[in-house]
Write a structure and sequence with these properties.
The chain is α+β, with helices and mostly antiparallel strands and 250 residues long. The protein has helices at 36-43, 76-87, 181-188, 238-245, and strands spanning 6-10, 14-19, 67-73, 92-100, 107-116, 124-127, 138-152, 165-174, 215-223, 229-233, 248-249. Strands 1, 2, 3, 4, 5, 6, 7, 8, 9, 10 and 11 form an eleven-stranded mixed β-sheet that branches.
Amino acid sequence: MLNNIKIIYEDENVLVVDKPAGLIVFPEGNIREKTLINYLIEKYPKLGDIGSPPRYGVVHRLDKDTSGILLVAKTTESLIFLQKQFINREVEKKYICLVEGNIKADSGEIKTLIGRSPSDFRKQVAIPENQRSLPAGRQAITEYRVVRRYSESPTSPRLRGVASSEFTLLEVKIKTGRKHQIRCHLSYIHHPIAGDKLYSFKNSPVPEGLTRQFLHAGYLKIKLPSGKIKEFKSELPEELNNILKNLSLR
């Protein structure tokens, strides 16, 4: 697995990792499998002295089945410097995702509170800001822009008799960094991410061959401890590109 972890950028202060899907970033709770930070510490033993376990130098998180750009600090000072920018909303992050259904508006904003679901501890739940019935809810803001619209004609029983399935490819920017924010928000507007087993609905259509949630962290812009403002990009993984090739443009 260590050989499959691509380093996009490295200097004396930071690693920029292109995380593959299927890999947990750091262990939490009852997780026993090897995680990204475990693999990185094998290659960079000094990371074990940064921050606090289990995160060590991990600046922010990506879900297990989300691929893309992840920052890891190589010094405690760098960790504090970088995390402060996330806290102050000074980092620009863009994601690419494929969602169920046809989003008719070319762009939009989702603004709610987000907190842990009282009925399912694995999930987050979004509620309107004027309904402050979620005591632990925190403000979350997600912006999206339509990149392309697709359709798929039913070719197997998995589409359960639907005449055709529609999907929308989005570029998403998050103004806040709540847990599962993009997945929760898109499900909240009834367009869950394709392949998302936690936030999709019963009988949600899934494109042929998709075995993970279609969510990729493709762009990040941040000021590094060196003082330079850097932009990092990660291309859509081949398995996700192949899914799009098998769909029809609308």
